[in-house]
Amino acid sequence: MDSLGVVEVVSIASGAELADGMVKVANVELLRAAPLCSGRFLIYVSGDREAVQTSVLFARDSQKKLVGSFVISNVSPLLIEAFKKNEAAKRGEALGIVESRNVSAGINAADKAVKKSDVRLLKFVSGQGIMGKSFFVLGGDVAAVREAVETASEALADRLVEAVVIPNPAEAMASALTGGVR
To answer: Which of 5, 26, 85, 158 is placed for a possible disulfide with 51 were both Cys, Cβ 3.0 to 4.6 Å?
Structure first.
């Protein structure tokens, strides 16, 4: 897998139908097809770039109302790992928290941030329990975290809710955000 396709649909029923079509039109793996608490539906597909582009183009060309869609080529392994599990913060490292109005734009911004700067993607939260928004937590030295947060903020543009850098977070806060400190 070198590419990730992300499609966020306004309707759960339409999203399910669209996900089915996306895996039928191209040789992609369906990584996630699930409703979000906001009544939206989120679809992740992976595979080679051409197949993922074909699948996402099918979604874009449909008559379904999309919140967002992205194809991320050469997707960062840090992003894929963050989907699977959180990583504990390191004592004394800066934390960056970036909040997006939707999941698809947040995924794209997180990928751009970790590719631009020498940071770790500690956590990615996608939509459940936060009204369809997403947020992610970055860790590293202050300068790198600031650069990554700026990159993510620029990528999000009007989809940015808020972005902050905490240079030396309290251990309790770092643990609350990431699930632990080491």
So the answer is: 26
Q: With pLDDT > 70 as the criterion, what percentage of the chain qualifies?
A: 98
Whole-Å CA distances, 56 to 39, 112, 178, 180: 21, 19, 31, 36
pLDDT band with cut points at 50, 70 and 90 for residue 39? confident
Instruction: Look at strands 3-9 and 29-35 and give their pairing.
Output: unpaired
How far lies 170's CA from each of 28, 58, 83, 87, 127, in Å?
Answer: 43, 46, 25, 17, 26
Alpha-carbon gap, residue 94 to 97, rounded angstroms: 10
- Within the chain, residue ranges assigned H as helices are 12-25, 49-61, 77-84, 103-116, 142-156, 171-178
Copy the structure tokens of residue 110. Answer: 């997180």
For the entire predicted model, the pTM comes to 0.82
